[in-house]
Each structure stands twice: as C-alpha cells, then as structure tokens.
Amino acid sequence: MESTEGIRRHSAERMRDALERLGTERDVWVSTAHPEHGPHQVPLWFLWDGQAVWMCTGATSVTVRNIRRDPRVHVSLPDTFDVVLLQGEAECFPDQEVPASAAEAFAGKFGWDPRKEAAAFVYVRVVPRTVRAWRGEPELRGSVIMRDGMWLE
Q1: What is the pTM of this model?
Q2: Which residues of the chain have pLDDT under 50?
Q3: 71 with 89: CB under 8 angstroms?
Q4: How far apart are CA 129 and CA 88, in angstroms?
C-alpha cells in the first residue's frame, strides 16, 4: 500500500487527473438499484466523450431493467488508491437508435460494434451531476470536483 500522508492535490489537479483517467481507462463499475432487490453492481467497458460516460450491455440485463425503473446510477473507476466516482442519471439507447458518433467511438475504442451482433444491446449514457476524486485520507475533505453538473475550479 502506498503512503498518502501529506499529499493533497488542489481541485484543478484532481479534475485534470480524473479527466485524463476517464479518457484513457477501459473499465468502470456501474451501480444501479432495484426497489425490491436492492443494489446491483457490474463492471462494463466505457467510453468518455468529454461530457458523458457511454457503456453497452445486453438489452435484457439487470442493469438496463434497473435503469428503466430508476435512472440514478453511480459509476466508479476500478482503483481504490486513485478514486474517481461519478453520480448521475442514465439514459438508455437501443443499439439501433444510439447516436452514430457514440457507437462509432465505442467500436473504435474496443474493436467491437454491438450494433452488428445478433443479440440486442443497449447503450447507456451517463452525464455526471457529481464527481468525487481522492487519493487517500488526506484528500477525502474537498473530494467533490463536480457539483450539479459543473466542474469546480
């Protein structure tokens, strides 16, 4: 485990680092909830388009069913030392109705185009309303770098 004692980035540094990771990483954990069955969390590939996170999953998945009941989601990058958590509302796009630019960027990043599969897929878009980022306990205070959809400077 790396020591984080005494290290504390300013908001602008946290925002820069979070945006860099969103632009380069491959996987996120997506958390949804069912009103009777509770939390559901899955890892998915993702694309950051500069404004939103795009993911893709099976049209009949628990994730899609939960989002259609309650669009509030949490999305997190899979690193417990360099934490980036996004909170927002998800919007579902059937694979044949997704904006072409998002689908093509997704296919370009992963070398896989869900629109060409026999099974039905749904693209999920999450525009973050809140983003938190921290590295260790010294950065927990002030971890919010986006509030109400606006980056904090």
Answers
A1: 0.93
A2: 1, 3-4
A3: yes
A4: 5
